[in-house]
Amino acid sequence: MTLSAGRLVNRLPVLARQAVTTFLCLAVLVLATPPAWAGSTVVVATYEGVINPVTAEYLHDALNFAETAGAQALVVRLDTPGGLDTSMRLIIKDVTSAAIPVVVYVSPSGGRAASAGVFITLAAHVAAMAPGTNIGAAHPVAMGGGEMDKTMKEKVENDSVAYIKSLAEQRGRNVAWAEDAVRKSVSVTEKEALKLKIIDLIAEDLNSLLDSLDGRRVTIGTGTIELKTKGAPLSEFPMGWRLELLKALSDPNIAYILMTIGTIGILAELYNPGAILPGIVGAISLILAFYSFQSLPINYAGVLLLLLGVVFFILEVTVTSYGLLALGGVASMILGSLMLVKAEAPFLQISWAVILPVVTLAGGFSLLIVGMGIRAMRRPPVTGREGMVGLVGVAKTPLAPQGTILVHGELWDAISEAPLQPGDQVEVTRIDGLKLSVKPLSKK
Q1: Is residue 238 located within the same domain as residue 280?
Q2: Is 195 annotated as catalytic?
Q3: Pair 342, 411 in one domain
């Protein structure tokens, strides 16, 4: 059966409404039906490096992403030498209050979970390690510079012990070993950790980890859930360029280099106003260095020594010290470099491989840039009224004592100290308004 053209035209609005209604119904069904991976996907966040504010922000964002996406678990691949206590506690607060299980997986082979990493691993709902990794050495170190006195050391140690014991008890892990990790800085391999019930399992890779987690019952704040991770799709949560940049800036070596560049740039601009580029680079470098300092235990005596060293290098250009100021600058910068970061932890110390080249380059660059600026200030002017003095011209008319001379391609009224004849060479000694004072150019 066919419809006439007229009847078809009349039914077009009705057909359009039916099509729209059908489309909306299908859209509602699609949106109401969770995707195939919802509740089965596993989000993976990978972090390698020092525990600092960047770490806390990254893992917080990863956990929020996993919970919002409806993932059944978040796996944190961790390799850390330790880090800041404040950042560690922020991470643990996120883990303990998470709406989904958090699995800390110490990997890859050769990685470790030391110091703050021990606390984070013990706080996880499930703790796992890869072959060839280790965990331990969680004794607190002085982050405020120098040695802690006996009373303060005991307070800090007892606080850390109480905290790690509460985490171990909450997750049903070895409380005695957790205490020894803080008091005695003990460290164990992945096999020893499994035997001592510090971790829950050993897995060679992520796929093996997911297979081992399958069917495991995990207790979170809202109750107990059973993981269905075998063959589950993985969703990587990258750190992003912003956090990668901030992570790099948190390196003490980078902070040290930025502060040195910033100081030299600012001082070079002050000694050579109008150069612009040194000032811009210096200001940006100092601001980035100050950002780095907020995540590091900085000794400001070290900062002052570094500044003093650069000042000594600059004074060497202007003051005759026979090299004493340069030597003082080298000594001041090296002492400031060693004192800059107040921490015993090796991963927070500035490397000698960075200190020596930076001090050498800072000294040479300061002497070069500031020296160029000072020589430019001492150079006689070559433009304007002052630039006329010392120029050589030729007398165009007799000067007895007034007449006309040709200087720099221009005719000037001049007055001479001695009589001159046309063609005689003269030297400009002074300029008064539009009249030049000249003297005969002495003949050799």
Answers
A1: no
A2: no
A3: no
